[in-house]
Amino acid sequence: MDFFESLKNKRVAFVGIGVSHTDCIRMFAKRGISVIACDKRSECEFEAEFRELGVELRLGEDYLDRADFDVLFRTPGMYFNMPRLRELRDAGIVVTSEMEVFFDLCPCTTIGITGSDGKTTTTTLIAEMLREAGKTVHLGGNIGRALLPIVDTIKPDDYAVVELSSFQLISMRRSPDIAVLTNITPNHLDVHGTMEEYAAAKQNIYRHQGAFGITVLNYDNELTRSFADEVRGELRFFSMQKPFEHFPKEDIRLPGEHNVANYLAAIAAVKHLVPPESMHKVAKEFGGVEHRIEFVREIGGVKWYNDSIATSPTRSIAGLRSFGRKLIMIAGGYDKQIPYEPLAPELAEHVKLLILTGATAPKIESALRNCPEYNGSPQIVHAENLEAAVKAAHEAATSGDIVTLSPASASFDMYKNFEERGLHFKRLVAEL
User: Distances from the Cα of 271 to the Cαs of 77, 88, 137, 240, in angstroms?
Assistant: First the structure.
């Protein structure tokens, strides 16, 4: 491809040696491009392999001090407007990302999904429906693998289905052919600072579409509904408030009304591409995505669920409403500066024992105790870490109870990401 040829005489830095960049570093190096791999961690598990490929490693706190490169690929978690990246852009260095370049080069139809809640499940549902209809699907973005390393293998009649976070979208100036916005509620305000910036980043998913684009918006979410007048191409709404005859919602295997909304979003996105019988088959057979109200095991009549993806209050609320009974809930984690007052009445209604851990524990307890609906229930206990929280839940639970890990908080105070937290929880439960 001309793009890769154009980089042969340039130095390309990848910042963040994580899941998405590892394959990119390999691919760029094998194409004969001069690659620098940068990470603030002092160790790299791929060090021997990278050095054999001729990749220069820069590890440790000073990983971005030297600006002797022409192009920088930032990892999605690296805030686009951070001062150092501004300095590099001002110095003439091209700052981009794997997803930005993928969208520039991708030869097939792109379907992008974003939102504060439900985007991973909706993304997966869209991919499953397309596959059931016999399409070739490449799943990536904020879920799965990096797609840029396989762009040469993608055919024009394939479909790229990508989950996009606000951190990826904030710098993107090309929108997918089909854009889905599940909802917008307060999230990641510790990085974005304001709801205005957070919402504006999400809006990039449709803002750069042409007249032939398709945008799917949540009619029930006031903020996403307000974007309708900006849509350049075809506008499709989905709503839980309006009748929609497709198949009985009781046929949906995933629990919870929020998953009905996720199905409505997915159906709206691909209704012109997937026959109804394929959608119905996915509804009846799809069992869910790992870490999203994932059933772990039953022991002594107690069912344990892993909802580690619930990194915000709205995600936890959706999970709490899924079971139809009072739960034992493990919550707390890294503080993203999100208010917990909306979660409090839901805790009072749906939880009988709340086990709090992590940095947000005091904020969640305060919101609950100051809630008018709180009358001493649920009982609140604190645990030093997840091990202690699981132990406390196990000791308190009796046959017929449900225990859910639903943190309503990010994981970064103790874990690399919510997946690592969820896997640790599952190991702990397996060992009971």
Answer: 33, 44, 16, 17
